[in-house]
Amino acid sequence: MKMKDNTSGKGEKRENWGSRFGFIMSTAGFAIGLGNIWRFPYLVGQNGGGAFVMVYLIICIIIGIPLFTMEMSLGRKTQLSPVKGMRKLTKKGSPWTLFGWFGVLSAFVILTYYIQIIGWILAYLYKMITGQLSGLSSDAYNATFTEFTSNPLMVAGFTLVCIIIIGIISARGLEKGIEKACKIMMPALFIMLIVLAIRSITLPGAMEGFKWYLNVDFSKINGDTILTALGQTFFSIGIASGGAFVYGSYLDNKSDIPTDGVLVIAFDVIAALIAGTVMFPAIFALGLQPDQGPSLLFVTMSNLFDKIPFSGLFGSMFFLLLIFASLSSALGYLEPIVMTGKEVFNLDRKKSVWISLALIFIVGIPTIMAKGPWSEILIGDKNFFDFADYLSGNILMPLGALTLALYTLFKWKFENYKEDTNIGSSSGFKVYDWWAVAVKYIIPVALVIIFITGIF
User: Fold this and answer.
1) What is the second-level CATH architecture of the domain 20-455?
2) What confidence score (pLDDT) does residue 12 get?
3) What is the spatial distance between Cα 36 and Cα 270, in angstroms, rounded to a whole number?
4) What is the pTM of this model?
5) Would you kindly state where each structural domain of the chain is located, as residue ranges?
6) What is the rounded distance in angstroms from the CA atom of residue 335 to the CA atom of residue 318?
7) How far apart are CA 210 and CA 277, in angstroms?
8) 80 Cβ contact list (under 8 Å, min separation 6)
């Protein structure tokens, strides 16, 4: 997968992936994050179990795979970051360059609160290891979470630790930093997920939860279910946030984008499915409710681990795998921002990394304060934390994806997309002519619906 080096940012040689395995693990790491292990299970719990899972799988195949391969293919085609890449394909000032800016801005806004959530997880790992989460009542678990998140100094401290970890890895570069870290974290994540899933389904009464999780009740499928599954696909895979584009830009023409794209999304879906297998059998076995919403991760799971043998071991393993998943995603979100600093503002990599993270932390201070002293300050009906999530997930990412879809439809054209993406494909899996229906009709219509419903 080595290729001739390009230059970017003060004449530095452009980095490339060290191996295909490293690329797949890093890109899967970008896709696999809190969207899989935190958001997916609680959405399944709120949307009827197996019915939601089925709709989500269908959407990943019909919409997720084409959009993801579009981004990676454009990145490989340009060998540049999203902003500079779209300028190269069109021209500076072209409306199509908005796709690049939407992606970078989405990633920036996401990281202002995403790194904070990693800080919460790090804090809970510390609490689990030190026994602070043992023997509490259900109300006490709720109070612990509320007390911690409403303390801005504590949250800021753990967030800064996470920023330093992310910065050290990213500043080391692509192959020695991101790729090396993800080649360790991703296999470890799947091993821990499988161990926890086996432990969960062997609890007395766990099979009722497993059956509920996989049972497809078609009466549960409605417009809200489909829209929620669409939104989860974007959040989970990271579509239109620049990560797939910039990771694709480190590929050469021998790389097999269709196959690798499917593998990445397959890993992403498998991680989500195993996460559900960890949670729902155990929740049913302990008589808890599956529809706890966002608190499922911190409140319900802490309660759950306290009630099973070797709670400290399995609880610590759970929060450690969450840190691995969220760190690998944060590195993917950070990369288009860092490369924009290099290519657009001519910064060297280390300087771009630390300036980007400093700005993310500063801009993210209101989201840290949003659960505490600034909880009464609202934008519309949302505090700063919820507004950052809304702005990135409901406005910027759908707008970016819609721009990408329209660029492919009107400027790039389906035939060129197919030809460019299939370069290097030797496995037999390719972009086929029948994808045209999804690319020309299903995806643009779905994105317009997501955008409109996201606003109104």
Assistant:
1) Orthogonal Bundle (1.10)
2) 61
3) 9
4) 0.90
5) 20-455
6) 26
7) 7
8) 8, 88, 249, 339, 343
* Separation between Cα atoms, residue 66 and residue 417, nearest integer Å: 10
Token match 């584009």: residue?
245
Distance CA 311, CA 35 (A): 24
Q: Return the amino acid letter for 364.
A: G
CA 5 from chain centre, in angstroms, equals 29
Phi–psi pair at 121, nearest 5 degrees: -65, -40
Q: What are phi and psi of 173, to 5 degrees?
A: 100, -175
% of the chain at pLDDT higher than 90: 58
- Which residues make beta-bridge pairs with 382? 379
What three-state secondary structure class fits 45?
helix
b/e per residue, 36-70, with b = 16+ CB within 10 A?
bbbbbbbbbbbbbbbbbbbbbbebbebbbbbbbbb
Average pLDDT over residues 52-74: 94
Q: What is the rounded distance in angstroms from the CA atom of residue 115 to the CA atom of residue 158?
A: 9
pLDDT, tens digit, 9 for 90 and up, residues 373-431: 999 999 988 999 989 988 888 788 889 999 999 999 999 999 999 999 999 987 678 99
Phi-psi region of 204 (alpha: psi -120 to 50; beta: other; left: phi over 0): beta
Note the pLDDT tens digit of each residue in 76-118: 999 999 999 999 999 888 999 999 999 999 999 999 999 999 9
Among residues of the chain, what percentage have pLDDT more than 70? Answer: 95
Query: For 58-71, what is the mean pLDDT?
Result: 93
| CA–CA gap between residue 59 and residue 358 (Å, rounded) | 36
Length of the chain: 456
